[in-house]
Structure formats: C-alpha cells, structure tokens
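STRUCTURE:
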C-alpha cells in the first residue's frame, strides 16, 4: 500500500487539483483501489468527486471520537475510487 500526501501552507497552488488527479489516475489507469481523504476545510475535493451514497458520519469523528475510518468512507461515481469527505 502506498500513501501519498499533498501539502503546502500556501493556498491556491493546486494541491486539491493534484490530489484529485493522482487519485483518479491510481483508480482508473492503474486499476488500484484508492481512497482520497479530504482534510481541506473548503472541501473542494469532496465537491469534485460526487458520491453515490449519503454521508455516513463525520470525518472529524475519526479524530475526536475515535470512530473507525471505514465507517465514513463513501464510494464515488468513479470505480475503485472512494473518499472520506471533508466536513
């Protein structure tokens, strides 16, 4: 399993665009099951990746209430690409 983090303190440099495109490429071009965890308060990646199911809970609960991350994963319209949506 590979983990890729996209991070920068500067806003407007394309972090969300890069992260969504990397996730899409991993899911479609290399046929890997991919999870994108949107930690941005603006929730742009969540907006760009429409989900096929309603929210199952709060992503913040993973940290605040020790909720299992698997309980808040949502499928997207893209095969093999799931998201933990920002809240």
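SEQUENCE:
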């Amino acid at each position: 399993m590979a983990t890729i983090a996209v991070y920068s303190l500067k806003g407007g440099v394309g972090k969300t665009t890069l992260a969504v495109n990397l996730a899409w490429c991993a899911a479609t071009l290399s046929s890997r099951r991919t999870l994108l965890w949107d930690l941005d308060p603006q929730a742009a990646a969540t907006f760009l990746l429409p989900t096929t199911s309603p929210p199952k809970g709060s992503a913040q609960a993973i940290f605040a209430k020790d909720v299992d991350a698997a309980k808040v994963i949502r499928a997207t319209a893209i095969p093999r690409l799931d998201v933990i949506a920002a809240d």
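REMARK: The helical segments are 15-28, 44-48, 61-64.
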